[in-house]
Amino acid sequence: MTLIMGVLNVTPDSFSDGGLWLEPDAAIAHAVDLVDEGADIIDVGGESTRPGARSVDPVEEQQRVVPVIRALAARGITVSVDTMHASTARAAADVGAAIINDVSGGLADEAMPQAVLDTGLQYVVMHWRGQSDTMDALATYTDTVAEVRSELSARLTDLLDRGVDPSKLIVDPGLGFSKNAHHNWQVLGNLPAFETLGYPVLIGASRKRFLSALLPEGSPAVDRDAPTAVISALAAQAGVWAVRVHDVASTRLALDVARAWQAGRDD
Ligand code: PMM
Fold first, then answer.
1. What is the mean pLDDT of residues 18-30?
2. What CATH code is assigned to 3-266?
3. Which atom of ligand 1 is nearest to the CA of 176?
4. Collapsed DSSP state (helix, strand, coil) of residue 9
5. Domain ranges in the chain?
6. Which residue has its alpha carbon closest to ligand 1 atom 10?
7. pTM
8. Which of 80, 150, 208, 243 could pair with 232 as two cysteines, CB 3.0-4.6 Å apart?
9. Per-residue pLDDT tens over the stretch 133-183
């Protein structure tokens, strides 16, 4: 059954929810709501990765995320930490995080693979070609699916060579990261190609820019929750391990529909 990773951005500048959950108490309350709505994992991030976002000092990032992760883990909630910094991953592990979600797949901080080894946490390896200020310029492919897959495969090989336990690894093709709308749809239409890497697959389509083309011009980001939920259902049918979403309730419903559909077929 496909899991739901609920997004909790403890940032002033994330594109769809920046500034909403900067206060720890508000962040914790929102995470508890997401769990009540059906999230299996809460992904806590303290640095926006939207195109053009400024990078955040790891100390500031830790001030944002550590108290929130500590409180959520103490409530028995499974927490992932969305970070490219090894020091933040270690600080999160110390207060009970279960998963390191690194959108750079270990490329942004050379100390990350050792942090993965030392903490023994699960590790999301996302496809990434460069920091937020350069990533759009790097969105060039001749064969999108093959190139994303082989670049992910190279990251996996590197991590395994350093001794990371394969059972800890999760892959994510990184929708929107050095990928335009066309590239994103190519990835989504070919999810089995990523599943053949042999690791659980995570998909993060939620509220991303490429969904806006399906909606009336000028629609707010929350209007992307319906297309996001449809993607969640289709991704579940394609066998993904988890979907990372802002609006958990609509994706919960979509996954329940997909499951009922499947049960009808198996009956
Ligand atoms: N997207 C964002 C941030 N973190 N992590 C993973 N594993 N996959 C993603 O697609 C992903 C991510 C950017 O979205 P946000 O600003 O809404 O958090």
1. 86
2. 3.20.20.20
3. 10
4. strand
5. 3-266
6. 204
7. 0.96
8. 243
9. 888 888 999 999 999 999 999 999 999 999 999 999 999 999 999 999 999
